[in-house]
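Usage example:
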Amino acid sequence: MPNPYIPYITKVKSIVSENKVNDIKTIELEFKNEEDYKKFDYVPGQFAEISLIGKGECPIGIASSPTEEGTIKFTIKKMGTVTSGFHNCEEGDIVGVRGPYGNGWPVEEMKGKNIVVIGGGFAFSTLRSLVIYLLDEKNRKDYGNITVIYGNRDPGEVLYQDILEEWKKRDDIKVVLTIDREAEGWTEEVGFVAPIVKKVGPSSDNAVAVICGPPIMIKTTIAVMEELNWGPEAILNSLEARMKCGIGKCGRCNIGNKFICTDGPVFSLAELKELPDEY
Amino acid sequence: MGIETDNKEIISSIRENAKWLLSENQVDVIIGYSEGTVPLSSTPIIIRKEEDVDKLIWNNLCYINLARYLAPLMPQLCDSEGNSLKIGIVAKGCVGRAVNLLAVEKQVNLDNIKMIGFNCNGIVNRSKIDLEIGEKEILDVSISGDDIIVKGHDWEKKFPYDQYINELCKVCQIKSPSATDANCVGECQELESIHDEFSDIAEFESKSADEKWAYIKDALQVCTLCYSCRQACPMCYCNLCFVDQNMPTWFGKTTQFTDIFTFHLIRAQHLAGRCVACGACSSVCPVGIDLNIITRKLEKIAKERFDYTSGLNAETIPPMMDFKMEDEEEFMLEED
Amino acid sequence: MDQKILKKDQIGKLYNELVGEYDFYAPINKKGNIAFEKIENPEDIVLDYLNSKIPPKSVLFPQNEVLFEYTLDEKDVEITDRQDLEQKILIFGIRPCDAYSFELFANFFSFHGDWKDDIYLKKKENTTLIGIGCNTPRTTCFCTSVNGNPFKKDNMDVFLTDLGDTYLVEGISDKGKGMVQKLSWLSDASKDDLKKAEELAKIAEESITTKIDVDTVVKNLETCFEHPVWDEISESCIGCGSCAYFCPTCTCFDVIDETDHYNNRGRRIRIWDTCQSCLYTLETSGHNPRDTKIQRCRNRIMHKFSYYPTNYDLLGCVGCGRCVYVCPANNDLRVILDKINKIEEKEDEKVVA
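Running the assembly step on the lines above writes:
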């Protein structure tokens, strides 16, 4: 029985800034041992506890898709001690990784359905993982129409611009980008995510919606979805909480009798309605 | 029949004043003490109706400093919009000191507070009694005449009251709140200063550094860092305590002696000149640690160097937050 | 005969025989507080006590525990795992409520997700419990209300009954029976000894005065999450960590890295934490799902009497009563549970917050 608190050792392969103000970076990690990489068998929507050994650990959603082989990616916003430490990392630095943890997006149950992916701001990272997974040539035929609606405060905040460009060129995915207010040079939608979702009006027929973003965005978007006749079992959210162990042992990420780290972070709206309003 | 009789009078005075305040609408709620459910304890209680005043008691086991609930102001003392209600607070002298000092530090608005003052006759030293009784269950503690009667299943023991109260209570000179009629009903006084020889700590002061260190180390060996002392202290109201800081992390949080000692030392430093000598920290400690010798020393330094005693009024700023041109600076500047 | 007698003055002999193989933990007196610590000198062992102040969870789940150690150099990190988890541990003098808490711990640490807490579970596997029945339960004990009993033997390896100058010794588990057999110098118990033990067990159970209808509590908790009773329940709480630290079933912990930068080494440790702390659920963004005292007090009760039964069909409380006599503000759990029980009776006053 191995010690579940010991991380895999990985090295930083690259570190890329994702936004204009330079407080969100994507870090790409390479496992030191090949067998560790094989053990790290993940699905989109899962997270890992990544650490700068000696500084601390934090739970971050996995931004890369399992179909992007060889390395794993995390998009990290500079907020506290550990995340600031990550921002100062250089190529070759050691990062500890524990995981993959959590239930992830239910990609098996989603087969045969139309998928609507709605993201706001920096929460888009596990949605990147999901969409790349769905679009992969091995998987694409298993899913219906894919619609992505992604909102940000301003053009400088839009993450993964290179990947978004690739998606826009494809004819098997619809991409709608929006920013809160008019900005020079911006030719796409303008408005908060909820009214843009209303405008796009995704049909709930044989469909699943995946929503990730700041609490206010989720709240307003869900209200719109309910107006469009979406049932609560078809709306999925990924929750966040303060986490330490990531494996349901330290006790702090509970909502009611569920732990966000093991029973989640993905919960359907129907499941959330059963739980206390504590997140 | 001293203590027992005094207590009866105190209880009756608290209840009368509480009833009057509520009936005159001078307060919305009153926070006081009620009968504890285990021996050697009392439970803080909030009452809102006149008919509940009989729940208020006083029994020499009311060791919680009720001012602790004023900063941060607990939701049960606020209205639905989060604004302070008009609060009546059963106040022994040290509670009064804490309320005054919290007002100076701008944590409470005295316009919202009415103290129900009385002449406190001391708090029983819980851990001293526990230690004397040992591993037998105490079933009842009461005051009879001037004795503390402690009863178990098939035994009874008597302790002389004046020897078994908290060390701080033995030397206390501010038994009722130092406040004006504007803020206090019942017993209160207007003190400008007190005279204190601090003779109770003379013996400890005369010990060598090694002896003092040994005493403190011995006292702290059982500490579990539960932070009951910090939580019970009315003057420890920081949103983020220094031990919990992590950008950067200043101190460790383990129970290795270095971390334990550092917590207690720094907390004492943060209370220099601010401690109101209520003894709640040692009364609440689940493992019976009593470091009030340090409390007394802090008070002595504040008195001797700055002629300051905390909580006598709601104006004077404590010495560690203020300066006067006449402050001696011999530790900063060399004599030419 | 399976039942044996251990004379109280033979404790030293027992210690000397077992200390070579086991880390021997027993109750000692630490400045007036009984605690389970590793015994270096058998004279330190205390036999006359009600229950320890600090719960014996501290033996297998210490307040600070190393998860792993590391050394840092220019561009590499080397991790060293725990090497001491195979060490055999013996805990002498544990009460039935605390022995049961060990089972709850093991259950919780093997549940939830594919990862078990192997650090704890390995130690538990290597632990032998020699427990003692409670002849005189405290008035604050309520083990019989939570499926316990002052003479419950199930969770022990060896069970002792205090007969005065001697202990009646019974091997309960296979491990325990094997141990008793090895202690061949123990004398046989007589019929009188067994009779006395039975009587003591009966008297002890009857002497428990606190009885709580926990079934109604569990039922009421299913629907009273937003009930205003929580305002009253959390009134006197001062938000310290005593109830959690002194509780034998509280398992929550924090994880921190402690690094010695001068020597490029460090360790990742876990320390006890409490859901009563205002920082417990504070996220780096500043959002705090439980930022009021009322929510935190409620979480503790819900966890032990609602979430635990929902998830594991077990209660999260063993009725030891420590939280009752340790709470600085006398926020008595028995009073809290009573208030929750009375909720249905005052249906007309119910207001959804």
